[in-house]
């Protein structure tokens, strides 16, 4: 039976320096997108807490699957303006008030 350290080392060993370099390059090239997407995710989560809603309730209010809402709140999703408006309307909260600077 592998212990946690062995599992970790086996996982890390699968990644090559090329993979790590490509990941780093992606994050550098997309840092604005990632920051903006993560900010939206945090705003959604904060608003759900304020309303005492679950992700499932938000999904039902918008007409999407709970899995889709989970993707949104993990960050990294490229949301359409229409989706942002639908989320904003369901939550009664303007997600587009983010500061990009």
Largest sheet, strands/sense/barrel: none
Secondary-structure element order, N to C: HHHHHH
Kindly report the CATH topology. Answer: 434 Repressor (Amino-terminal Domain)
- Rg (C-alpha, Å): 18 Å
Individual helix count: 6
- Total beta-strand segments: 0
- Helix fraction? over 70%
The CATH architecture can be named as Orthogonal Bundle
Based on CA inertia axes, which overall geometry fits? elongated
Mean pLDDT: 85
Query: Into how many domains do the coordinates divide?
Result: 1
Low-confidence stretches: none
Class based on secondary structure composition and strand pairing: mainly alpha
Question: How large a portion of the residues is in β-strands, by DSSP E?
Answer: under 5%
Task: State the CATH class.
Answer: Mainly Alpha
Quick description:
By secondary structure, the chain is an all-alpha fold.
In words, what does this structure look like?
With 101 residues, this protein is mainly α. The protein has one domain: lambda repressor-like DNA-binding domains (434 Repressor (Amino-terminal Domain)). The protein is 72% helix and 0% strand. The protein contains 6 helices and no strands. The protein has helices at residues 4-14, 17-29, 31-51, 55-62, 66-74, 81-91. The longest helix has 21 residues, at 31-51. The radius of gyration is 18 Å and the shape is elongated. The model has no long low-confidence stretch (mean pLDDT 85).
